[in-house]
Design a protein that fits this description.
alpha+beta, single chain, binds copper (II) ion, five-stranded mixed sheet, elongated, four-stranded mixed sheet, Immunoglobulin-like
């Protein structure tokens, strides 16, 4: 009887470890905020690490630019940016090198350096 209890406890511990590992796997280990202002993306240059999941939060704070959408062409990501609403983009850079992000019309530009 006591042995069975121990087994159940051990099983629960293994399960807890697995669940923790899974949730950490899905959690971005780096978060960055990028604002869209009159000047464009701020900051407009980001540096990221290869294979490290990232969450970039974009907030458009102006109506004076055409930055109503953000596009990461290499990762086929594009999202509308409503005024003053944070929009999260999550991905994992898998290649080293420069990566561009732009507005929907490729006028505002930003750069991600993946190392
Ligand atoms: Cu534009």
């Amino acid at each position: 009887m006591k042995r069975r209890t121990l087994l159940v406890l051990a099983g629960l511990m293994v399960l807890a470890v697995i669940v923790t590992a899974q949730s950490q796997k899905n959690k971005p280990s780096k978060t960055i905020t990028v604002k869209i202002t009159k000047k464009g993306f701020e900051p407009k240059e980001l540096s990221l690490q290869r294979d490290v999941p990232v969450r970039i939060t974009f907030i458009r704070q102006t109506t004076e630019t055409c930055g109503t959408e953000v596009v990461f062409p290499d990762y086929k990501i594009s999202k509308p940016l409503p005024l003053n609403k944070p929009v999260n983009i999550e991905f994992t850079p898998t290649k080293e090198g420069d990566l561009k992000f732009t507005c929907g019309m490729d006028m505002l530009r930003g750069k991600v350096i993946v190392q």
